[in-house]
Amino acid sequence: MSSLLTTLGLRASSSSSSPVPLPITNHAPALLIFNFIFAYGLLSSRTLKQYYGIDHNASPREDLTKYGPAAVRAGKITQKQLDTLKRNEAAHANAVENYALLVAALGLATAVGVKGEVVNRAGVVYTLARAAYAVVYVTVADDRWSQARGCCWWVGNGSCFWLLWRAWGVLALGGRV
Predict the structure, then answer these.
(1) Which of 107, 113, 137, 141 could pair with 91 as two cysteines, CB 3.0-4.6 Å apart?
(2) Long-range CB contacts (< 8 A, 24+ apart) of 41-45?
(3) Name one Pfam family in it (predicted).
């Protein structure tokens, strides 16, 4: 646990041979890899559509609109399952769309030399917010409770905006931050 706290800049890093805090490793590449796999792979509805037998490789983006209602009528899936699949596809599309903001924020912050713990903290907040966003989007059908999805979306984007702000500060001060 102490290494996670150190990675996030919540505890000073040190070595037994040096009283001076050691620099924190920037984990932006790992965060980008994880979020790519999460957005493009784990949130993809293809696996669930294959499980329910309504996946058509020739036109997978039309599966739910073209074949979904027929699958409900045929008893392959329920309307509730179809609605969940539609929310899953929407969550997947949003995660893919939002990935570019994360790449820009982590990439720019890393390139200009924002401290590793700041980059790590923003990346972890983004990752946790996007995971919560996906869970709420896919599992919550109630309109009132689905508003939590917007809060998660803003927390994730806010972490990226904060990181871009920190990068701007480094650039504006000539790397003296």
Answers:
(1) 137
(2) 43/88, 43/91, 43/92, 43/95, 43/134, 44/92, 45/85, 45/88, 45/89, 45/92
(3) MAPEG
Asked whether residue 109 is domain-assigned, the answer is: yes
Please name the amino acid found at residue 28.
A
Residue numbers of the domain that contains 35:
28-172
For the stretch 147-162, pLDDT in tens is 999 999 999 999 999 9
- The structure's pTM equals 0.84
CATH of the domain at 145: 1.20.120
**Phi and psi at residue 9, in whole multiples of 5°?**
75, 20
- Alpha-carbon dihedral 136, 97, 51, 56, rounded to 10 degrees: 150
In a domain, 105, yes or no: yes
129, part of any domain: yes
Total tally of structural domains belonging to the chain: 1
Rounded Cα distance between 67 and 55, Å, is 9
